[in-house]
Amino acid sequence: MKSRCLMPLLGLLLAGSALAQTTLRLPGLPPATPAGPVYVAGSFNNWQPGAASYALSRQPDGSYQLTLPATVLGPQEFKFTRGSWATAEADAHFQPLANRHADFGAPATLTLQVAGWEDQRPGGAPAARPSTRAANVQIISDSFRLPQLGGRARRVWLYLPPGYARGHQRYPVLYLQDGQNVFDDATAFAGEWGVDETLNRLAATGQRPVPGIVVAVDNGGERRLDEYSPWANAEYKKGGEGEQYVDFLALTLKPYIDAHYRTRPDAAHTAIAGSSMGGLIALYAGLKYPAVFGRVGVFSPAIWFAKDSLLAYERRRPAAPASRFYFVAGPAESETMLPLMAAARNELLARGVPASHLRLRAPADGRHAEWFWRREFGPAYRWLLAE
Predict the structure, then answer these.
(1) CATH topology of domain 137-384
(2) Which residues make beta-bridge pairs with 153?
(3) Rounded to whole angstroms, what are the CA distances from 230 to 131, 239, 277, 336, 346?
(4) What's the Cα-to-Cα distance from 129 to each of 118, 331, 361, rounded to whole Å?
(5) CATH homologous superfamily of domain 23-120?
(6) pLDDT tens digits along 147-193
(7) How do the domains of the chain map onto residue ranges?
(8) Which of 139, 252, 314, 380 lies 20 to 30 angstroms, CA to CA, from 125?
């Protein structure tokens, strides 16, 4: 009797979940669009421009559509692509388009239009966006080798604080992921963090702590999910190279930076941070190398990608009590974002990190987007590297 009563309720719950799904529909594509798949990338799939599970299906009437998973709820940002950021949608003049915004909740079909593609500007490639990086940002190398990952090459950026060249002071160092999005709008795919502007303002106003050195490593494009998680995700069939990537940061890149610049190389003055998948790998780095990365900034972490493995790893390898961890995300980013982030924080607390070394913020307007991480960077930096 009990099981018979539960069945209708279960059916209603499943039906409600299905009804909550949103369908994205494109009536057609710009006339010169090459043959091939069209994808949607957004805050709901870690901005993967060519994820197979987010490809739109061509319909008999020539339209394209995709029904999003029922778990995609609340305010989201997204764009359409043809498989890469070089082939992202553009406006009618072939200029980069701002992120689309939508609040997914009630069942709906959103009919949208693509006006053009960035790579189809008449006369060649899309017009380059002007650089916004500050004068005290440089590129160490366009092809810095990652020996732990078979010698892959990556661009590495460097921010030196104002006055660095004129003095002898040593500085703390912050290592950031997704270097394309850290300093320069010309290389960012969804807006930049403005780290250089934030730290230059901090220096100009005499606020503490004194801005330090920032090292930002570009992500590996299609290898981003592989390198930013030590554990594979069965659904995405990605991940599993995060341990080697963190080894590169700790054993190759940091020694290089310490040898060539005036750093304070101890863990208390070495921070690591990132957002989304970058937040996941930053948290892992702080757990694996507590004697190297003693300050950890975790912005909107994609803990869902490897939640069971990460939480088990926290239990096996407790963080150093002297480490500091700063967590921040918005409650509307996803249903699991805050619960999983709080679970990671609570595990650190249970394993000996004092509450005074842990901070968790959840601004109501927080979104899975660069503008949010840009805004939150300053407070996170000041708290993590405060003396």
Answers:
(1) Rossmann fold (3.40.50)
(2) 145
(3) 33, 6, 11, 20, 21
(4) 12, 33, 33
(5) Immunoglobulins (2.60.40.10)
(6) 999 999 999 999 999 999 998 999 999 999 999 999 999 998 778 99
(7) 23-120, 137-384
(8) 139
pLDDT reported for residue 118: 83
Q: What is the DSSP string of 306-324?
A: GHHHHHHHHHHSPPPTT-E
Mark residue 214 as left, alpha or beta (left: phi above 0; alpha: psi -120 to 50; beta: remaining).
beta
3-class SS at 112?
A: coil
Sequential DSSP letters for 214-267: EEEE---GGGHHHHT-SS-BTTTTB---HHHHHHIIIIIIHHHHHHHS-B--SG
User: Residue 298: helix, strand or coil by DSSP?
Assistant: strand
Alpha carbon distance 41, 140 (integer Å): 30
Cα(368)–Cα(76) distance, integer angstroms: 8
3-state secondary structure at position 6: helix
Omega before residue 27 within 30° of 0, cis: no
22-26/64-67 β-pairing: antiparallel
For residue range 52-101, list pLDDT tens digits in order: 899 999 998 889 999 998 888 888 889 999 998 888 888 887 777 778 88
Residue with tokens 């899309």: 126
At 309-331, the pLDDT tens digits run 999 999 999 899 999 999 999 99
At 136 the three-state DSSP class reads: coil
Assign 123 a pLDDT band (cuts: 50, 70, 90): low
Confidence of residue 21 (pLDDT cuts 50, 70, 90): confident
* Reduced 3-state DSSP string for 39-103: EEEECCCCCCCCCHHHECEECCCCCEEEECCCCCCEEEEEEEECCCHHHEEECCCCCECCCEEEE
Token pair for 18: 């299905």
Segment (H or E) for 161: none
